[in-house]
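Hey, quick one: can you model this chain's 3D structure?
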Amino acid sequence: MPSLLITGANRGIGLELCRQCLEQGWTVFATCRQPEKAKALLSLQDKATELSVYALDVRNSEQLEGLQSVIGSQPIDVLFNNAAVYAEEASQFGHCDEDAWKEAVAVNLLAPMKMMECFVDNVARSEMKVIANLSSKMGSMADNRSGGSYAYRATKAALNAVTVSAAQDLKHRDIIVMVLHPGWVRTDMGGPQGELSVEQSVSRLLELIHRADKSDSGKFLDIDGTEIPW
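Sure thing. Here's the predicted structure for all 230 residues.
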């Protein structure tokens, strides 16, 4: 059965992705900053021997190296870069806090890049060979009609660019590298007015991943499989 390595697995989309993959018989390597406080994730672990939970602050190079050592040479069918911050303090013109910007760059951009670099060999050893970077329509410059959300938009747009480059660089290894938009989801970040439940969003994301082929590599895909303009 396939295997998943995911960041930000303690809540929202990350947690639900773990749950649905486990239901489908996947092996799941789940990471989050403070596993001891991730009660819902630990509850899943109590019921599923296929779930392993690891402490990982995606900004912490030592923890990343430790995870790399633990995973070793195990194949990873899907590397799913999910962890992200909104950076509220860097969202409004004239009120952009420098520290908030630095955190957004570290978590939303540099961390997915490092995860890809650290685990590319594991992905290459797998059957599916998929790297999925969770972005957002808010990273689309063509779709930006409301302004604001400066750090979040900028770092997601940069993640999109990184993904396209990785898709080109890893083409010779038959690795599919995709940017996915989860829809407007009812999560802590998306808010209660979201159009989709977490369960609906993750179900559709998994459909995109299952049917992905080389033609999808380097694409920015909406939840319904259509391409989003950059």
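One thing worth noting: The helical segments are 12-23, 39-47, 61-71, 98-124, 150-169, 198-210.
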